[in-house]
């Protein structure tokens, strides 16, 4: 039934149904061209809406690695077979040409020696009127060879002399000396004829037997280049090399896709930002799974932040009532303890909520002056009378920076503004947490800023005396982790965790170093 045909049954269109007519039990009949409503319609979509089989692996999608491997293997086999066939065919064709030329040379010798008819493909011209062949400026290369005809029982014979003129080369006749010694002059002339056919240089050949006249030997059909078979050995080798280069290039491209995906996953600035799909189908499936996991993680953090926000809001009114009631307590010491407990309780909720928001990275990035941000944070603490100072930048080494390749690591000159892409509010909170931590466990805090073309480093140094091992401090970055000297200090144990989470959101890291008078916390932020 086509979509334009009315559905079967006695139901009439709504416009033609008389008033008071009963509606069928199945509901009003669907309009022409529309799918019927109801559960059955939801379960059985029209054919046009059904997805094609294969899903992402349709003909237009990227090839899976299995097909890539099969295609590369088949291409390698085809290239190898084609190269082997071309090489074998060329060898056979040239062997046939050289064998024909060798046979023609042997027959030519017997024809000259006996005064007979030359073989097919060769012809002898009339004697030259001027005696010896004249030199030709167009044929500057001359090759001469002599053969001594020895008959049975004879001690001497006529000498056969050949002179070959060529525009391209002098023929290496020394290579046929062994043929003459092994098979006599006939075999030597056959080898020389094969030599002419091998080089294919359009030679002009003259022959003289004994004291007879010089005669030209016409042999274009045997020695000429027109009838020479194509030599496919060099193209076959080149094709094999190109096929190997293509295979290696394709394999390198696939490997590069995996390396690029790994680099994107390793160096991404936003921990929960999706990764762009790329490469073969298997890699895209892995990236899709990672993106789903990142989306689930972000959704989990959003739900946690929503719950914590609700809890913080709901506890606001009871906390306010407790503060009002605490103000009515006449015992100042008891009143102070209760107020401090309330502050600690609300501070812990705020810290957990801040940690969740730091992990989510809700704030948008923008270009900012990191120098101005650090100076503003230090100035805020100084206005409150807190012992926080900004260290002067270290002097820049004099002289030129080594080479062009070291320029990326050259430090910024003193007074230069360090500009990065970052989240300003998050960075202020991270730096504030590090300063608060330094003031809590040390007498003062010194802040310094260094940068090069690759990264910027904010260091906060305290003067708390002998510092803990930096490796042990790395464990205190975990949420709610507190050191042995934190028993008397108030806090939720989330300050370093929030700073580390903000550093990771920027693609950087929080590390610790041993300072001369205490501990140094270093916040590293990439600039690229």
UniProtKB/TrEMBL annotation:
Domain Histidine kinase: 310-528
Gene Ontology terms for molecular function: phosphorelay sensor kinase activity
Transmembrane segments: 67-89
SUPFAM superfamilies: ATPase domain of HSP90 chaperone/DNA topoisomerase II/histidine kinase, Homodimeric domain of signal transducing histidine kinase
GO CC annotation terms, alphabetical: plasma membrane
Compositionally skewed regions (Pro residues) per UniProt: 1-11
Protein name stated in the entry: histidine kinase
Classification of source organism: Bacteria, Pseudomonadati, Pseudomonadota, Alphaproteobacteria, Rhodobacterales
